[in-house]
TrEMBL record:
<keyword id="KW-0813">Transport</keyword>
<keyword id="KW-0676">Redox-active center</keyword>
<dbReference type="GO" id="GO:0005737">
    <property type="term" value="C:cytoplasm"/>
</dbReference>
<feature type="compositionally biased region" description="Polar residues">
    <location>
        <begin position="43"/>
        <end position="53"/>
    </location>
</feature>
<dbReference type="InterPro" id="IPR011900">
    <property type="entry name" value="GRX_bact"/>
</dbReference>
<keyword id="KW-0249">Electron transport</keyword>
<dbReference type="InterPro" id="IPR002109">
    <property type="entry name" value="Glutaredoxin"/>
</dbReference>
<feature type="region of interest" description="Disordered">
    <location>
        <begin position="30"/>
        <end position="53"/>
    </location>
</feature>
<protein>
    <recommendedName>
        <fullName>Glutaredoxin</fullName>
    </recommendedName>
</protein>
<keyword id="KW-1015">Disulfide bond</keyword>
<dbReference type="InterPro" id="IPR036249">
    <property type="entry name" value="Thioredoxin-like_sf"/>
</dbReference>
<dbReference type="GO" id="GO:0015038">
    <property type="term" value="F:glutathione disulfide oxidoreductase activity"/>
</dbReference>
<dbReference type="GO" id="GO:0045454">
    <property type="term" value="P:cell redox homeostasis"/>
</dbReference>
<dbReference type="GO" id="GO:0034599">
    <property type="term" value="P:cellular response to oxidative stress"/>
</dbReference>
<keyword id="KW-0963">Cytoplasm</keyword>
<dbReference type="InterPro" id="IPR011767">
    <property type="entry name" value="GLR_AS"/>
</dbReference>
<comment type="function">
    <text>Has a glutathione-disulfide oxidoreductase activity in the presence of NADPH and glutathione reductase. Reduces low molecular weight disulfides and proteins.</text>
</comment>
Length: 86
């Protein structure tokens, strides 16, 4: 199973939605608190190729994208394989 990391910010509804989906999938993941102006947010932006929004999700060290990208993978049936579930 690949390492999963998600950069989030308190109170972000998109972050909560993405975290909830990962929890429903039952996969272990590391949630990294990354409010604006923090070193964690800068790391997220750098790792994602310049994306400044949260959440930013990484699977196996590769940038997956944000909440909309995660939900699109789920709708297309491709998320489970990417997370190592299928």
């Amino acid at each position: 199973m690949p390492d999963i990391e998600i950069y989030t910010q308190p109170g972000c509804p998109y972050c909560m939605r993405a975290v909830a989906l990962l929890e429903r999938k039952g996969v272990p993941f590391k949630e990294i608190n990354a409010p604006r102006g923090t070193p964690e947010r800068a790391a997220s932006t750098s790792r994602s190729g310049g994306r400044t929004t949260v959440p930013q999700i990484f699977v196996g060290g590769n940038a997956l994208g944000g909440c909309d990208d995660l939900m699109a993978l789920e709708r297309s049936g491709k998320l489970d394989a990417l997370l190592g579930l299928g």
